[in-house]
């Protein structure tokens, strides 16, 4: 889930909690407390979701990435062209 979607969803959830608390006749302090608790729970859930997504991702070793990049570069090099770090200004 992208951050903008998360923020919009969080605002809607907080608006529902605030509206529900107001209709329920809660005091302003209770409304604020409920909104803060709801925001903390949503933030913790989002953090755990992202943490789980990172944990499930399979790590790719740097050597595999380097070899894939090197292969892509070698396929683009014309025959007879030398690969070097030096560049001419011509």
Topology:
Elements: H1 3-24, H2 28-56, H3 62-76
Helix pairs in contact: 1-2
Describe this structure in words.
- By secondary structure, the chain is mainly α.
- 73% of the residues lie in helices and 0% in strands.
- It has 3 helices and no strands.
- The longest helix has 29 residues, at 28-56.
- The two termini are 48 Å apart.
- The mean pLDDT is 81.
Radius of gyration over C-alpha positions, nearest whole angstrom = 26 Å
Low-pLDDT runs of 5+ residues are none
The geometry reads as rod-shaped
> What oligomeric state do the depicted chains represent?
single chain
Number of H/I helices: 3
* Estimated helix fraction: over 70%
Strand count: 0
State the major sheet: none
Mean pLDDT: 81
Q: Strand percentage, roughly?
A: under 5%
Distance between the termini: 48 Å
State the order of secondary-structure elements, H for helix, E for strand.
Answer: HHH
Going by helix content, strand content and strand pairing, the class is mainly alpha
Q: Could you name the key traits of this structure?
A:
90 residues, mainly alpha, single chain, 3 helices
Structure in a nutshell:
The chain has 90 residues and is mainly alpha-helical. The protein has helices at residues 3-24, 28-56, 62-76. The model has no long low-confidence stretch (mean pLDDT 81).
